[in-house]
């Protein structure tokens, strides 16, 4: 396949070298309800080749120019489907217009949460999102209320998507091996779903609650200038990790109606 690409620490690159795991991750998308799949950070294409075997149209976005050159040379099927750039700064409409697209990747650990937040911002266009993260991040996205890992990502993802932790990946299948285990998870968008409150205010309140997660909600949300009646609400003495996303919708509506 030609000269291999050197993994670059500043890009958080850990190249997957296990073909079985690569194929398993490529299959983690499940049934894709759109014609386009975008792989983020394909590296040397170990997972890309399995995506190219499937019925959808595969695109890749890669920041590393060395990887872009390698993919261009070794994967002729990707002709005109390689996007050189940073997913976090990229505007999908420039390539896909108004079409929906699924997202998959072996995500760099140092920007994986940012990738999820961008996906949430683009949720109207992304029906399925799957891939590999640092294990604790994948677990956090799928965590249930009351668990230690439950947090901002859990609530925001579960409000719009059905989330599922699929399997764990050991360190030795990467070059260079990371210092932690990885986890593969999938998010499938809830179709025809309405949140039931202002999405912007919902996100603001969830972040405000978890940024002071050791405090009860009546104290964590003081900056919202709430009336004295806040102490009478069922959630006032609870902490953020005790509330489901549905509870946060109820909380958001109460704040909007009662904020001074």
Helix content: 25-40%
Structural class per helix/strand content?
alpha/beta
Quote the distance from N terminus to C terminus. 65 Å
Uncertain segments of ≥5 residues (pLDDT<50)?
none
Query: What's the total count of β strands?
Result: 9
Q: What gross morphology would you assign?
A: elongated
Count of folded domains: 2
Helical run tally: 10
Query: What is Rg?
Result: 20 Å
Instruction: Give the rounded overall mean pLDDT.
Output: 92
Strand content: 15-25%
CATH topology call of the largest domain? Rossmann fold
What is the CATH C-level name of the largest domain?
Alpha Beta
Assign the CATH superfamily of the largest domain. Vaccinia Virus protein VP39
Give the neighbour order of strands across the main sheet: 4-3-2-5-6-9-7
Which key terms come to mind for this protein?
two-stranded antiparallel ribbon, 260 residues, alpha/beta, 32% helix, 10 helices, Rossmann fold, Helicase, Ruva Protein, domain 3, 9 strands
